[in-house]
């Protein structure tokens, strides 16, 4: 049952991470376009650094750093009288009250905590790529559209939300669609973040022996992983169909190759 439940865990991760990553990306793109230099530098620095670090390295480093940062803040708040150093060689030791979550907490709290760290980490990584895509899509909107909006008396905010943002999605969707496919393929990295995903259970149940059980069958890992192969291929195919329909719908009335093709069909 935990194996079947892990599929829901992957789908829940995608359902939460996709909009959160999109929000990170939109914020990063808007920051990069800002006329306020520190904000523009922050947006460009965010997209450049995160996109330049391999995903697996970022996942391993960032999760550990974030987890220790949370515990360090709790340590200084809850245990001000603690005299021993927190870092002792390779060990990171905080008072028991500062553990996140507490060792006495139920198992579901530990799972929710690890899942939340995974969502936040995925959102930061894919948000940086989404920011680069959205930034390029905003620049692809014809400037004549923006100039016309200003000529009709719209201010910068009205032009941004009523003209630029609605039109930039058709340019951003192909890149965002590719990011969605990459995000699907990246879900097996959940195992590195302490979440027991479908890859973890496929390896556990398919083996002859696990850490807890001895199974009365041979090595069935090949069959489990073939099933995961079919699952991911079917999921990506459904995603392709949905993305094609979204692209067709957004292309209506747009001055793009897709919009021109729809006009000719009509």
Features:
single chain, 266 residues, mainly alpha, two-stranded antiparallel sheet, 9 helices, 73% helix, flat
Q: What would you note in describing this structure?
A:
The radius of gyration is 23 Å and the shape is flat. It has helices at residues 2-32, 37-52, 55-78, 107-140, 143-151, 156-186, 198-206, 221-250, 257-265, and strands at 87-88, 91-92. A hairpin with a 2-residue loop joins strand 1 (87-88) and strand 2. It contains nine helices and two strands. The mean pLDDT is 84. With 266 residues, it is mainly alpha-helical. The N and C termini lie far apart (51 Å). It is 73% helix and 2% strand. Helix 3 packs across helix 4 and helix 5 packs antiparallel against helix 6.
Major sheet characteristics: 2 strands, antiparallel
The strand order across the widest sheet is 1-2
Number of H/I helices? 9
- Cα-to-Cα separation, first versus last residue: 51 Å
Which class of secondary structure composition applies to the elements?
mainly alpha
Mean pLDDT: 84
Number of strands: 2
List the helices and strands and how they pair.
Elements: H1 2-32, H2 37-52, H3 55-78, E1 87-88, E2 91-92, H4 107-140, H5 143-151, H6 156-186, H7 198-206, H8 221-250, H9 257-265
Antiparallel strand pairs: 1-2
Helix pairs in contact: 1-2, 1-4, 1-7, 2-4, 3-4, 4-6, 5-6, 6-8, 7-8
